[in-house]
Amino acid sequence: MAALGLSEVQLLSAGVVFLRVGAAVAVLPVVGERVVPMRVRLVLALAMTAAILPIVGSGLDLSGATPAQMVIYLGTEVIHGLAVGMMLRLFVIALQVAGSIAAQSTSLSQLFGGAAVEPQPAIGHVLVTGGLALFVTFGLHVRAVEFLVLSYDVLPAGTLAPASDLAQWGVTRIGHAFALGFSLATPFVVASLIYNIALGAINRAMPQLMVSFVGAPAITAGGLILLALSAPIMISVWLGAVSGFLVNPFGGSP
User: Fold this and answer.
1) Does the bond joining 254 to the residue before it have cis omega, within 30 degrees of 0?
2) Does residue 26 or residue 251 have the better pLDDT?
3) Alpha helix locations (H) across the chain?
4) Per-residue pLDDT at 140
């Protein structure tokens, strides 16, 4: 009976850990993409649970837990898992924002806009695909698992973090994500500004010239050339931002 009781506690601990890990896996970069089948996500969540459980299981005291307490665990762990996963998902959104700004600036926003699972301009799809590939290549998915383990120290199981702290953490990270996205797209914004100023000057100098017919191919070709030149730098900056976040993910919050 003692052995059976120990097995029940271990099973409850595994279930509690799976709640947080499963919620995080649903939105994490790479494993949480919509192109990944649901069964694969489930297997990945179970594998991550098996890896994390021996580390954090000793800190979970579920012996004698009542059904009401398990309901509390159900709510808090899902919320904490989604919060942790969304902090990393925001970096993918930053790439999507950068791609959208770049595409709008270079008149490429309609080029293969619906080819991806998540409709976005082709530039955004290229940046996201490249960023996620490097995310795995540089082992940041392992750092993401470490992030989940660390979250148990800051967001204890069974205790919901104060809403004000979670809100402050989320707003800060969202602001950083949009700032990063705009920073990555800065070369395209500057090029678009120079192009429009030059086009306006040419139009004033030669009103009879149909500058739109001349300028449209130029901005399209310039945008593709600029993408080829700047994409490696953009992805490198993005990768550094993700690595810096994983070094100190909470930064004092929540």
Assistant:
1) yes
2) 26
3) 2-25, 38-56, 67-105, 122-137, 140-154, 163-184, 186-205, 211-247
4) 82
